[in-house]
Design a protein that fits this description.
This protein has six helices and three strands. The chain has 113 residues and is mainly alpha-helical. Belongs to the glycosyl hydrolase 10 (cellulase F) family.
């Protein structure tokens, strides 16, 4: 697709998928953009309040940079199916707002640019 000027035509992937067969080779050769399939979902990045684990998402971003500087498309930082249990237990609206703002700011801030 890149050969036809489709720079931002991409694929949804993550580190586990990239390690299967020829997937990484096919994505590297044909796509200019990758979207994290699950590695940047809230329960994957912050399973415990205030404790961030960027291992899987860092792998994907690193792979994208090493394979032609692929664009990373941000995707679904807040999704009801990927909320850590601790978020669902918050009852105070002000606390929930603070937690959401902290989460988004931390993730977006890490991968800005």
């Amino acid at each position: 697709f890149q050969d036809y000027g489709k720079i931002y035509f991409g694929a949804s992937t993550d580190n586990g998928i990239l390690q299967q067969g020829r997937t990484a080779e096919i994505i590297a050769r044909n796509f200019g953009q990758v979207t994290p399939e699950y590695s940047m979902k809230w329960d994957a990045v912050e399973p415990v309040r205030g404790s961030f684990d960027f291992g899987n998402s860092d792998y994907l971003v690193g792979w994208a940079q090493e394979n032609g500087g692929k664009v990373i498309r941000g995707h679904t930082l807040l999704w009801w199916r990927a909320l850590p249990d601790w978020v669902s237990e918050i009852k105070d609206p002000a606390t929930l707002t603070e937690v959401i703002e902290t989460h988004i700011g931390t993730v977006v801030g890490r991968y800005r640019g």
